[in-house]
Design brief:
198 residues; alpha+beta; 4-stranded mixed sheet; two-stranded antiparallel ribbon
């Protein structure tokens, strides 16, 4: 069991914090049978080697087990969360069930923001192309280099803009289609290539 790290360094700076985190780790170990917990998690297909994180009622974070790339390369974390002190278990369970609906809302906001950024970049790119294209006769052809480079950037931005528009529509009307796209390796790789070309 280890204390949560940020950028390879412990998230605390004082010996008091280190003592508190050690006390929290000992309390968790005394309350949980971590070996049985880890065995049960590893028995679930696709979760073998998943990292396990515990968040107590005061939002202190302890990593019970780091991710081990046994069955997958992408890290998987399971978060165990204790209810806040001011909330009973039933109210906390209701709160967690209610917050699950917000996941789609935040994905929609993310898709809209991405679409706005990529469409804005496409607009700027095509504006640069028009401006530098018009300047070619005035600069004796030297602005043609800028035009050539801007065509690549504007084209990639336009493709990303179209993709963002489709993803935003899907997230609003049929979000399971975005989940299907995101589960395909070829789609994730193409997205990476478009982002790199920007």
């Amino acid at each position: 069991m280890t204390i949560a790290m940020a950028n390879g360094r412990p998230t605390f700076n004082s010996s008091t914090r280190a003592f508190f985190d050690e006390q929290l780790s000992q309390r968790i170990q005394s309350q949980l049978d971590t070996k049985t917990l880890f065995d049960n998690i590893d028995a679930i297909s696709g979760l073998t080697g998943a990292g396990v994180v515990y968040i107590d009622g005061q939002f202190n974070i302890v990593e019970l087990r780091p991710f081990e790339p046994v069955c997958r390369i992408d890290p998987v974390k399971i978060v165990l969360r204790e209810p806040p002190k001011a909330m009973n278990q039933a109210a906390f369970a209701s709160h967690l069930r209610g917050s699950q609906g917000n996941i789609r809302e935040s994905k929609l906001v993310s898709e809209v923001a991405g679409t706005i950024l990529s469409c804005g970049a496409a607009f700027i790119g095509w504006t640069v192309i028009l401006g530098s294209g018009a300047a070619i006769p005035l600069t004796g052809g030297t602005s043609s280099v800028v035009t050539y480079l801007a065509v690549g950037a504007a084209s990639a931005s336009a493709l990303q803009c179209a993709n963002g528009g489709i993803r935003t529509f899907n997230e609003y009307s049929k979000p399971q289609f975005n989940d299907l796209l995101d589960s395909n390796e070829w789609y994730r790789q193409r997205q990476g290539h478009l982002i790199l070309s920007l």
